[in-house]
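Readers of this paper often ask what the protein records in our data store actually look like. Such a record has a labelled line for the sequence and another for the backbone structure tokens. Nothing more is needed to write down the fold, since each code stands for a local backbone conformation. The record that follows is passed on verbatim for readers who wish to inspect the format.
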Amino acid sequence: SAPDLLVMDKPVCLIDTASDGKLCVQGSALQVLEQIQQPVVVVAVVGLYRTGKSYLMNRLAGKQTGFALGSTIESKTKGIWMWCVPHPTKAATTLVLLDTEGLGDVDKGDSKHDTRIFSLAVLLSSTLVLNSRGTIDNRAIEELQYVTELTEYIKIKSPDEAVDDAEFVKFFPSFIWAVRDFTLQLNIDGKDTTEDEYLEFALKLKLGNSSQVNNYNLPRECIRKYFPSRKCFTFPFPTNPDNVSYLETLDPAEISKRFLEVTGRFCQFIFDQSQVKNLKDGHTVTGRVLGHLVKTYVDTIASGAVPCLENAVISMALIENEAAVKEGLEVYQSGMEELKKSFPLELNEITSEHQCFSLMATQTFMKRSFRDSDGKHLASLEFDSYLWDNEKASEAKCESLLSVLSEPMTERTNQGFYATAGGYDLFCQDLEDIVNQYNTLAYQEVKVMNVTLKERAVLLEQEMKAQEQRQRQLEEKMVIEEQNNEERVRQVIQKMEEEMFVQQQETKRAMDSKLREQAALMGKGFQENANKMASEIEQLRRRNKEVEDSKSRELAKMIADQERRNAQSMEVLRQQHRQQMAAINSRPRPASRSCSVQ
């Protein structure tokens, strides 16, 4: 089962740097993610090298050791390392921890490398933890130039399409600033403040338009715009400075109680508040999907292009929808193959089971599929009804039964038993016994045998009755098929409505963050910025309306296409119905005979 696959006793390297300097994905890490069918909460930590990022990630994993803690000035973590553990508070969910290479390591030489690592952490996570030391002063914020470059390294749609900042807000993670070795009093202008108020104070903009003011404001504006959901934790020194390098091996008694208390609050906040990772359009990310995303983004970066969320979703949808069809068919086939062991069955029984398994298969498909806007993949979910297999099994059973029942009579005929005086009456009596036994034992069979012996004339009427029964069963099948089709349309509507609801929630979050920021700017005298934000809010509303209208048209088309396909399949059944009725009406009635079998 899936949870058994999550027993990772230590982290593994997810993204490394190849010998040519390009980022590459580790296949063994992708294999781990491929096995995780559960939704994932992804927490990534970024920050300058040698700031103790790994200690917090080990605590989130519920361990003392795991991610490497460097005891020298050299940056320990290279690339991005991953640790998957069962989520401690969310059932049937996996917590994926990503520890990133320390930023600002002068030995690396490539200035773009850090921005790529930072961008990947933003793209892959549902919560981004920024780890820094000391205070949130101007130097700490200036060191976050990566935030100002994010929109150059991440695209929402194809690179030539202009996209408003609000679009980024929909898909970026929530943001936590963890300030380590914090020694200040939480006090602003003589008033006690909370950690969050301290962060907001550090992100305050300055009035003015000089280049100096603009440079000061730019990283702050970016953090405010891209990460409207912000939280701050200030950690005191954990222990005597001489012991900091050995933090993972220290006894808890040697670690400051205040440090442990903040660490506990930090972990609990992430466990309670970090959301499951979602794709653009609200599709829940599982471990398997996360693996595909990692590969897509890293391959794109390695090719020299800019990762694009829209393109990632399109390629993801194709992979997932093809897999959803396969998964749905497997559900149907495994159920029917098990049923096949009991063949032959009555037609109404096999039709009922066919309906049951085909609905289960459709539900399985719907659960995994997304962005199947033209219904192409749903339409390819076609099921063999196993009726032919059932008929062949029934025919074989009838042949065997008739052979066994007629054996004594055939033997008597060969011995000349019926050629004696009174033999004709005995022949009629024996034949009637065979027919009665046959009808008693074979009346439920789908394929009543077309008997080729002398008895054919006698059994003609029984064959006609069997054909009429098959006709009734076909009519039953038409009713069930119609119910099936209605259920499929209902599931299509439900799926599309769920996707539209998630999109509306994404837009609402983006709108709320814009409105909050606008109110904050107006309250602090930034009228020009507030007016610009009002224009952005109006654009967001207009675009949202266009998306909703487009989705409504898409849904109407999907339903129309599905109903057209349903009508075609029903017409095939009606054609069969007409042919069977014509066959019944054209069959000759058995002539009167002296040897009659009722």
Notes: The mean pLDDT is 80. The first helix runs from residue 27 to 34. The chain has three domains: 12-278+287-307, 321-456, 470-585.
